[in-house]
Amino acid sequence: MTTIKDMTPEELRIACAEKCGWRDIYIDILEGAFGIAPYDNGFIGNMKIPDYEHDRNALHELIMAVPEDKHIHFIKAMIENLNLDVVIFNYTLEIISSHKTVPGEIVKLLTADPLAIMRAFLKVMEEE
């Protein structure tokens, strides 16, 4: 079984879509991955799954799909994925390294690579 860390961008995309409720996902060699959207009540049919890596709106929807009770776990997973020098202590970010600043590390968190965000999302959602 492939670990989240070893997944290709397309594998991450499909796994994230499945966690967001997309179903019957299949890959068309020429067109990419398709499936049935979670909001489809039987009238829409197959659509391209969201491109979380290249579409910031889709990535935002992915982040918003993290349940509120898992927000802190998501932030911790992001910190781990990005190897940031901060820890969460009593729901505040605290710096570990003396040569870095909390704001500098937060900027890295806010501008994270979409693949890191997708990996954190899957890690948190698989804890269910």
Characteristics:
5 helices; elongated; three-stranded antiparallel β-sheet; two-stranded antiparallel sheet; 128 residues; alpha+beta
Structural account:
This protein has 128 residues and is an alpha+beta fold. The chain has one domain. Helices cover 41% and strands 17% of the residues. The strands form two sheets. The protein has a three-stranded antiparallel beta sheet, covered by helices on one side. A two-stranded antiparallel sheet has the order 4-5. A hairpin with a 3-residue loop joins strand 1 and strand 2. Helix 1 (9-19) packs across helix 5, helix 2 (56-64) runs parallel beside helix 5 (114-125) and helix 3 (71-82) crosses helix 5. It is elongated, with a radius of gyration of 16 Å. The mean pLDDT is 84.
Mean pLDDT level? 84
* Total strands: 5
What is the N-to-C succession of helices and strands?
HEEEHHEEHH
> Which band does the percent of strand residues land in?
15-25%
Summarize the amount of helix as a percent range.
40-55%
Count of individual domains: 1
Largest sheet: 3 strands, antiparallel
What Rg, in angstroms, do the CA atoms define? 16 Å
